TrEMBL record, chains A, B:
Stored Pfam families: MaoC_dehydratas (PF01575)
InterPro entries named among the record's database cross-references: HotDog_dom_sf, MaoC-like_dom, MCH/BMMD
Naturally occurring in which organism (per UniProt): Phreatobacter oligotrophus
Name listed for the protein in its UniProt record: Acyl dehydratase
Residue ranges constituting the MaoC-like domain according to the UniProt record: 23-115
Source lineage: Bacteria, Pseudomonadati, Pseudomonadota, Alphaproteobacteria, Hyphomicrobiales
Amino acid sequence: MTTTRPYPAFEDFVPGEITTFGAYEVTREEVIDFASQFDPQPFHLDEEAGRASMLGGLAASGWHSCAILMRMMFDGFMNGSTSIGSPGIDEVRWLKPVFPGDVLSVRREILDARPSASKPDRGVVRFRFQLMNQKGEVVMEQTNPIFFARRQSAGA
Amino acid sequence: MTTTRPYPAFEDFVPGEITTFGAYEVTREEVIDFASQFDPQPFHLDEEAGRASMLGGLAASGWHSCAILMRMMFDGFMNGSTSIGSPGIDEVRWLKPVFPGDVLSVRREILDARPSASKPDRGVVRFRFQLMNQKGEVVMEQTNPIFFARRQSAGA
């Protein structure tokens, strides 16, 4: 479970720290709802098309997995944090299909944490996230920098 | 508008080709719905919190922009194509906020297209996508490899 304190700020993210958190059950309804709206490829909508595909069964859109991870990050440590936003994602790897009924957890590693040179009230924390299923398989990996305000502004 | 033929297969993706397509109007309701489900940070839910943030107003989650791009890709050229799936995303850059009322279009560049060495029935096409708003500003960029089956299998 997460060891992050409530209301984390930039200072609370310690490079090298590894935490694991969350238990998100993926439902069939949610898989089909997301795919219908954003990624209606047959293997994300239909059991038979899923079985005939590389995925081996009806499986979630990779973008749905990203959205689920975002929700788990929010619930796990970003809710109430000093997060300011993110400039983007360095890499996403969809390694295994995510199936309805899977229960996902997050392994979060803090790669580095650097104060901003130009804006002394904030810093950027670079995370590596692994989304894991109930079998302990890593289904998705991504590297993701996020800006957090510092607990005390260092002044301008 | 897209110049892609119906039912595109691997052979139809020509490196260097640039196409522009789509007109997706982002609604306030959709921004709040997506954020409520997947990314409930205050600046994605509330006008005032958005104005107080780096975004300058209520703005879509970056993951919502990714999902919208996926839908525009589907409608623009993947529907009915021989797409098999994607191993991941090489890079995502969220460059400008996406606001309710924005009308988004896609600029697609084909970076390269390589037949698979191990699986002769398919190849991987690497795309660079730019999501643009109605002012012509690039709001998001990403680089994305996608597997497509070849029109005629080269045999095993």
